[in-house]
Amino acid sequence: xxxxxxxxxxxxxxxxxxxxxxxxxxxxxxxxxxxxxxxxxxxxxxxxxxxxxxxxxxxxxxxxxxxxxxxxxxxxxxxxxxxxxxxxxxxxxxxxxxxxxxxxxxxxxxxxxxxxxxxxxxxxxxxxxxxxxxxxxxxxxxxxxxxxxxxxxxxxxxxxxxxxxxxxxxxxxxxxxxxxxxxxxxxxxxxxxxxxxxxxxxxxxxxxxxxxxxxxxxxxxxxxxxxxxxxxxxxxxxxxxxxxxx
Amino acid sequence: xxxxxxxxxxxxxxxxxxxxxxxxxxxxxxxxxxxxxxxxxxxxxxxxxxxxxxxxxxxxxxxxxxxxxxxxxxxxxxxxxxxxxxxxxxxxxxxxxxxxxxxxxxxxxxxxxxxxxxxxxxxxxxxxxxxxxxxxxxxxxxxxxxxxxxxxxxxxxxxxxxxxxxxxxxxxxxxxxxxxxxxxxxxxxxxxxxxxxxxxxxxxxxxxxxxxxxxxxxxxxxxxxxxxxxxxxxxxxxxxxxxxxx
Lengths: 246, 246
Prior knowledge:
homodimer, alpha/beta, six-stranded mixed beta sheet, 6 helices, 12 strands, 22% helix, 25% strand, globular
């Protein structure tokens, strides 16, 4: 189901939600630490296992209490730190209803995650994978691999589907206000952020293209199988821990 | 000369200055594209030669007019794109009074650079090099290699001086409001931004340390000579172009 949200925002607004973008060079993954500066409650989006010490150090230095760990989807290119963060902080792991079984809480379209006084809205944005979700808060959207800067995630594994992704991009994400900041799950060219208006007009894969054209492009990419997929997916289904042999 | 600025900012404020952070993976350099969204006039800080096509593409896609190219100092670890950007856009190159001779305009403490309706203030922050300057605009400071996230630039070449850097950090940059966003010239651990308050409290090299301790640390680092210094410095003195043989 595709849901469309209206998220009006006053012209003059003090933003209390702080956003800290973090980069993992090996997997080109962006992790986001968000906190409400009024209460110092925090959540992290798409943490990378190898960066868990860096991220916990930052949480401690900022005096934050980590409440939630969110994954935008079951990743195929890196192992999530969600399980380790849960163990080391007591934070709850949140994933899509179709995501990792190890999550403490499953969310879907329209669900809200409260962090301090801030409300993070869950948007269903499947297509890269069938469990892909995005998170909207305070004029920013965290799109995982659904929408990247001038691009989008591939659709050829983990029940990915180009038609579904087209609908997620055009009907869900592009329904957000043009000045919404887009924080991607990866970038490979040194871009860090974009906006919905910019991606509507300039995204290489989708701007000015029909659904049929987009599907043809995505189904014709012929990309190699991700190097880490056979390690990452099984581990991410158990929050990044070592899977137990059957 | 060390100058201290007071930059008061209203609690409720619509920011018209847009900031786009860009990363060069090879040199771990951050480049910044800033523009006034009311007029679409832009400037770029610390552009990297190898990224000039990416950066000009972004300028075009956003519909910006590039007015100025600023370097925070004569870099030793990458070649500036300032000369190429000047040739390809007509933008003016701005550097410190003690910086690259090729600049169209030399600036020092308290000078202002107007971009659209926005005013960028020049802060003198020498110590990493003797020509290091920082730029303040709209609640953000671009610190080059003077102040990094939890660190600072080395002080052992290009007339660097630890005592001078200590004064730049503590008397100039730390005089800015605590919530000023700090946008560094590099990061090697995946950090992207910090704040003055955070660095005052948490910077590894300077928080809680005396001037004498800081000098001792900096003078004892024993770092290897930068790999690119003999290429980068001569080229950066001529805005990144091939130096003419004497």
